[in-house]
Amino acid sequence: MNSIKQEGIGMTSRRTRERLVNRLIEQGIQRIDVLESIRNTPRHLFIDEALSHRAYEDVALPIGFNQTISQPYIVARMTETILNAAPDDAVILEIGTGCGYQAAILAQSVKHVYSVERIRPLLERTRNRLRDLDIRNISIRCGDGNLGWPQHAPFDCIITTCAASQVPSALLEQLKVGGVLVIPVGDKDHQELKVYRRGEEGITDQTLEAVRFVPFLSGVEN
After folding, report:
1. CATH of the domain at 73
2. Residue 219, Cα to own-chain centre: how many angstroms?
3. How many domains does one find in the chain?
4. Domain membership of residue 148 as a residue range
5. Is residue 135 part of a domain?
6. What is the set of active-site residues?
7. CA separation (Å) from 63 to 7, 13, 68, 141, 178?
8. Distance (Å, rounded) from C-alpha 114 to C-alpha 23?
9. 3-class DSSP assignment, residue 98
10. For 42-68, how does the pLDDT look when each residue is reduced to its tens digit (9 = 90+)?
11. Shortest CA distance to 93 belongs to which of 30, 10, 161?
12. Is residue 23 part of a domain?
């Protein structure tokens, strides 16, 4: 990929990214690896070119198919929560690949990310993007996120980028003991970001903060 395009100019420049990173620090993001991943990842290449001037604002943006790229603070918060619980050679499952930005941030700090997306045209666009960016430790497939990816289970951690009314039991079953599931839970009027930890004696949960995500839907859309 053209290095100038990847580095960005003007509103997509390195200086603009630096301002975003400074905002994330002010909002409480502490892990250096998370901040470095966001600093080094060209978010403007994960959205339509017409919106690239807004790429480093701390806002969610549309990516088509009634989906969004998450607000950078939320990406950082979820990534930090995952990494605080994950071993250095972690294998992660993501439900809701979307444009691939969350997976790209995670992939810089873990061994491998397996990601499931239910919208096939969106998945194909994202597969091409990740190939162009030469990100090799992300595997993606089209499928129903409710089912997880049992062929590669159990996972050190699981993250979902869509809000479930109820936590899919398959995801909890595919967690290693000691692993965490980071997932928004609720309906369109009220959602909370929650962390479920699988211990030797069962599942415990913790609420982090209020959030707003697209809904967790079943099935596959071609």
Report:
1. 3.40.50.150
2. 20
3. 1
4. 63-211
5. yes
6. 70
7. 21, 21, 5, 18, 34
8. 29
9. coil
10. 999 999 999 999 999 999 999 999 999
11. 161
12. no
